[in-house]
Design a protein that fits this description.
The chain is built from nine helices and 17 strands. With 278 residues, it is α+β, with helices and mostly antiparallel strands. α2 (39-47) crosses α7 (152-158).
């Protein structure tokens, strides 16, 4: 009896924890800054307390904002063969049944990818340039001169250059799975917009997870799954077993959680914090 009461008490504390954490420190909405902060300000106000923010007017000096048109990208990168993720419904790195399924990675000329994105060519699938591991510098070096290989005030705040700088371009149907990054990230929107749902670290106890076998194959599943993920960088990198979770297993608990909704539009940058779950 005493053990049961103690367990109920612990569960009650956990249930109240997200609400109390928000009252004490997590913002009700994502703050917007009108200018880039100094390195000290950025570290003190955002990195150290692990809070997300949107920074406007931070990349207005980038040539990419004016140069990155479809015609320019076709001219500079067009015939080059690049890696493109292909899924049947836009959900990449997703749980399907009892497997963690990676998208098909297709090699194709960049101009053919642009034809699909611009609807000049129809396809039943969703295409997304989303490769990690610094694909901007490794696969698209022709575009580096239009941006910056690092953000000076961010590098100074963290005391190091970025481990990876990625270039992502995709259709509006492309969706990124719920996950937790192990880095302090800056997400720069050059064109279009990006929609985020952010969970603070205090929501972590209520996101269910399980072990799934890794499967990289041409697996076409008809309906978009409902899922979440907690990254395990070692197992995910080795491609053996991935720590992942399916929200559909416990929808009631998950639906009680509160999201921070964030629209990222042109000329904005997002810093979510390494412990937040987008």
């Amino acid at each position: 009896m005493a053990e049961g009461a103690a367990l109920r008490a612990v569960r009650g504390c956990l249930a109240a924890f997200p609400r109390e954490a928000r009252e004490l420190g997590w913002p009700e909405s994502v703050p917007c800054l009108d200018r880039p902060p100094s390195p000290l300000e950025f570290y003190r106000e955002w990195v150290s307390p692990n809070k997300p923010c949107v920074i406007r007017n931070a990349i207005s000096h980038w040539p990419a904002l004016k140069k990155w048109t479809s015609a320019y990208l076709r001219e500079v990168v067009g015939p080059k063969v690049v890696s493109v993720a292909v899924t049947p419904n836009g959900y990449a790195d997703a749980v399907f049944q009892d497997r963690f399924v990676m998208p098909e990675e297709r090699q194709m000329p960049f101009m053919d990818f642009l034809d699909i994105v611009e609807k000049k060519v129809t396809s039943p699938n969703v295409f997304y340039v989303q490769k990690q591991c610094s694909n901007l510098t490794e696969e698209f070096p022709e575009l580096v001169c239009d941006v910056q290989p690092d953000i000076p005030w961010m590098s100074e705040a963290l005391g190091k250059k970025p481990d990876a700088v990625n270039f992502w371009l995709g259709e509006s149907a492309a969706v990124t799975s719920l996950h937790k990054d192990h880095y302090e990230n800056l997400y720069c929107v050059v064109s279009g917009e990006k929609y985020f749902l952010l969970h603070p670290p205090s929501d972590r106890p209520f996101i269910p997870y399980a072990l799934f076998r890794y499967w990289k194959s041409k697996v076409w599943f008809p309906q978009p799954p409902v899922f979440s993920r907690l990254n395990n960088p070692i197992s995910a990198f080795l491609g053996q077993v991935v720590l992942y979770s399916s929200i559909s297993q416990q929808p009631t608990t998950y639906q009680k959680m509160v999201h921070l909704k964030l629209w990222m539009k042109l000329l904005q940058r997002r810093c979510p914090g390494s412990l937040w779950t987008p």
